[in-house]
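Running this now, will post back.
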Amino acid sequence: WQLAAACESLEEKQNVCEHVFQGGPEEYGLLEAIKFLMLAKALELHHSMVTDQEVPVFCWLLFARDTSENPQCLLANHLSQIGFSGGVEMFLLGYALNHTIQAFRLYMIDTEEFVTHYPDDHKHEWPCVCIVTEDDRHYNVPVRKNLQHQHRDGQTTTSP
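Update: finished.
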């Protein structure tokens, strides 16, 4: 993360990400770290909720399910299964990372739910990450690739 954040150009960042996100141990380690961040945020929010402090609305839904009535159940039944379900956990992920996740839900085209924000209560304050999904189970992050164009005069130019 620190290496990618320190990169000065988009090309350098892309190279770092392509090295890490190949399904190897580094990628899986990052996924597990994110799960722990989500668990830490769930513990904090659950404590606030049971002590009658103000919490985001999604917390009431998150902890109302039989399978996630407390952080321990949430970990066992949902966080350990990340990648197999969406919805409420996306709100938790946004809170854990202090980022708004803007999802383009392709199967919801021409509806109000085509573009969804997780969470929607900080979308003007937090940095935004865009994702695309066809089914709310499998998400893709659009990545800009540089394209090389060959001109008639033999010169090659690169454009985003």
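Residues 25-50 form the longest helix (26 residues). More later if anyone needs it.
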